[in-house]
TrEMBL record:
Residues 72-207 form the CzcB-like barrel-sandwich hybrid domain. The lineage of its organism: Bacteria, Pseudomonadati, Bacteroidota, Cytophagia, Cytophagales. This is Multidrug resistance protein MdtA. It comes from Dyadobacter linearis. Pfam families: Beta-barrel_RND_2, BSH_CzcB, RND-MFP_C. Keywords: Coiled coil, Transport. Residues 103-168 form a coiled coil.
Length: 362
């Protein structure tokens, strides 16, 4: 009986002891996460000529060959204005009306001359009749004909002036008409404006289908910028757009105020986004004969004061790689070592992906 109880107690103790024995934690393998090819945007590194770029400031200007400035030939007061700054106008369109004492004087002179011509014609008819009856001489007939011709010439001159000034005798005003089609880019008159014949211009019309980009070249950049180079035009007004042009001319004289040379870039302006007076930035690029592996500058990742890129491997895993660029251009990085041609460099969400890769390695 005693032995049986002893055996039972021993068995229970052994079972209780086994319940409290420490167990080893299972070993967890470190997994390397791979990414689906479509979830990561990459750029294949390529061998290409090394480029260097500089940025030139400037602005949009009118093409002076497509600008017409209108100056009044007579004095008067603007009675009506039919347009506003920036309006599209067509050739011959009435832009404004002006009342002038000169119109009254011309009309009065025309009426006097018409009356004198009527008398001269009657006199000529009478002299012709007398000449046929041998009462008047050749001299009398020539003088009568000459007088009528002179008066007719004076009347035609007045009509020509009225036509030149676009006079409307019915309204008693001069009509100011658009000499060409285009856009009103300057407008210096309004109803009630007194106009003198010495005014520089009442308005300016320009065809904005082509504009000039004037870029500033400082002395330190003279050896870099050359005629015929391509230029990419950007403006803060259109942050997502860029326009391409070619430097067509470079001034040979420094601007006395800004101390720069002016480079001219002719630009087509189909969408009329390039507005005269708009400040721009022109990026000019020079291509070298030396080759290197190039990638977008946006792919670069700064971490602990060092530069990295993310490389997508053939198994879709991402490798953070420390790099040192040999040449940095405007939006390109060039490497003579560290990245091989054909390697896929991550160019989208690389900062987030880089952080995820670092977390996995911890």
């Amino acid at each position: 009986m005693f032995k049986s109880n002893l055996f039972t107690l021993s068995t229970v103790a052994m079972l209780m002891t086994s319940c409290y024995e420490p167990k080893e934690a299972p070993v967890t393998e470190k997994k390397q996460t791979s990414y689906q090819p479509g979830s990561v945007v990459t750029y294949p590194a390529v061998i290409e000529p090394i480029t260097e770029s500089i940025r030139l400031t400037g602005q949009i200007e009118y093409n002076p060959n497509q600008v017409v400035r209108y100056a009044s030939l007579v004095t008067g007061m603007i009675t009506r204005s039919h347009i506003s700054l920036g309006d599209r106008v067509t050739k011959g369109q009435v832009l404004a009306e002006m009342r002038s004492s000169e119109l009254s004087e011309l009309n009065a002179q025309g009426r006097v001359l018409e009356s004198q011509l009527s008398v001269a014609k009657r006199k000529l008819a009478s002299v012709k009749s007398m000449f046929e009856d041998r009462i008047a001489s050749d001299k009398d007939l020539v003088e009568a004909e000459s007088e009528a011709e002179i008066l007719q010439s004076e009347i035609e001159k007045i009509k020509s002036n009225l036509s030149l000034y676009n006079a409307s005798s019915e309204k008693g005003v001069f009509q100011i008409k658009a000499p060409v089609s285009g856009y009103v880019v300057e407008y210096n008159i309004s109803e009630g404006t007194q106009v003198g014949s010495s005014e520089a211009s009442l308005f300016t019309i320009s065809d904005l289908s082509e504009v000039w980009v004037t870029a500033n070249i400082y002395a330190v950049d003279l050896s870099f910028v050359q005629k015929g180079m391509k230029a990419v035009i950007k403006s803060k007004a259109y942050p997502n757009d860029f326009f391409e042009g070619t430097i067509s001319d470079i001034s040979q004289v420094f601007d006395p105020t800004e101390r720069v040379l002016k480079a001219r870039i002719r630009m087509a302006n189909k969408e009329l986004k390039l507005k005269p007076g708009l400040t721009i930035e022109a990026v000019v690029t020079r291509h070298s004969k030396e080759l290197a592996v190039g990638i977008p500058a946006a792919a670069l990742i700064m971490h602990n004061n060092e530069n990295y890129v993310l490389i997508q491997k053939s198994d879709n895993t991402l490798e953070p790689r420390k790099v040192v660029a040999d040449v940095k251009d405007n939006d390109r990085l060039f490497f003579k070592s560290g990245i091989a041609a054909g390697e896929k460099v991550v160019i989208n969400n690389q900062l987030l992906l880089f952080s995820e890769v670092l977390d996995q390695d911890k």
